[in-house]
Design goal:
It is a single chain. The chain is α+β, with helices and mostly antiparallel strands. It has 2 domains: 3-159, 2-Layer Sandwich (Ribosomal Protein S5, domain 2); 165-296, Alpha-Beta Plaits (2-Layer Sandwich), CATH 3.30.70.890. It is 32% helix and 29% strand. It is built from 11 helices and 12 strands. Strands 1, 2, 3, 4, 5, 6, 8 and 12 form an 8-stranded mixed sheet that branches. It has a 4-stranded antiparallel sheet with strand order 9-10-7-11, covered by helices on one side.
Length: 305
């Protein structure tokens, strides 16, 4: 096999709470990840040596700053392969949008190289590799629905949700994840956790309980899932970029059951009652936003085509 095509999917966060700032500077979170149908396509082609990145998106770098490049570099280092690869990314997931696009590409590269070179690594092994690249990469390999703890890399798979129609709206600008975390309320962002027996300290700002959401996910009960969705980062972004609040309000007017910002934003998504409402809302918003799409939840993250 000399060439391989992979589809690697974006993620949304149905729940994201920031618990505390760790001594290493990262924030401890609890989140519920969900794969969606929006995806990049990646084509891997064997080379005699080296790593080359090609992409049709001007904001995607072609050097080692690209997470897909670093994923290939790590894979070759761990596997001790002397060959190389050309990575062509057909970009559909918006960049720096809270949808895990870079992480999805890295996940696709790890899964794809494992198949291309027929090395037979187990999914869990690839997920551990992915954790060395970024907190969202392990989930993008796992796919479906999962609870994430730590910085998001400690995963507990959940039963996959039934097919839910969504609208994904991106206002066309990028948001720095580090900046969003830096602007969290001081009671959360500046608290350094040192006592493992006191992990609930500082959680009073969160009005939702992730365990209640998980119960409704296990029951696949969409009406009860919607009011339990939460993102602690949303207030920071909405206050700095009012357009995100406007988009959420418009989605509600178009029949959304629930709206939320994904990750550190600025992308907003809506859970819709059906395909008709999703496509109708996406059609209306497409005329005034740079990126808007109707899609569905997905039970998988990476697919080899």
């Amino acid at each position: 096999m000399q060439k391989l095509r992979i589809k690697t999917r974006a993620k949304i966060n149905l729940f994201l709470n920031v618990l505390y700032k760790r001594p290493d500077g990262y924030h401890e979170i609890e989140t519920v990840f969900q794969s969606i149908g929006l995806a990049d396509d990646i084509i891997l082609r064997k080379l005699s040596r080296g790593i080359e990145i090609k992409c049709d998106h001007p904001q995607v770098p072609s050097d080692e700053s690209n997470l897909a490049y670093r994923a290939a570099e790590l894979f070759f280092k761990i596997s001790k392969l002397s060959e190389g690869v050309e990575i062509t990314i057909e970009k559909r997931i918006p960049v720096a949008a809270g949808l895990g696009g870079g992480s999805a590409d890295a996940a696709g590269v790890l899964v794809g190289l494992n198949r291309l070179f027929e090395l037979g690594y187990e999914r869990e092994q690839l997920m551990r590799l992915g954790a060395k690249l970024g907190a969202d990469v392990p989930f993008c390999i796992l796919g479906g629905t999962a609870l994430g703890r730590g910085i998001g890399e400690i995963l507990t798979p959940l039963p996959p949700l039934g097919k839910i129609w969504l609208v994904i709206v991106n206002p066309g600008f990028t948001v720095s994840t580090a900046s969003v975390y830096q602007n969290l309320p001081a009671c959360i962002s500046n608290f350094v956790h040192t006592n493992s027996q006191n992990k609930n300290f500082g959680l009073t700002k969160c009005p939702k309980n992730v365990n209640i959401l998980i119960q409704h996910i296990r029951a696949d009960n969409l009406p009860k899932i919607c009011p339990e969705m939460f993102n602690a980062l949303e207030t920071v972004v909405v206050n700095r970029y009012p357009v995100t609040r406007r988009l959420k309000n418009q989605l509600k007017e178009f029949g959304a059951l629930s709206t939320l910002m994904s990750g550190s934003g600025p992308t907003v998504f809506a859970l819709m009652p059906d395909e008709f409402h999703a496509k109708s809302a996406a059609g209306k918003l497409s005329a005034e936003t740079p990126f808007c799409i109707a899609t569905t939840t997905s039970p998988v993250g990476v697919t080899i085509l």
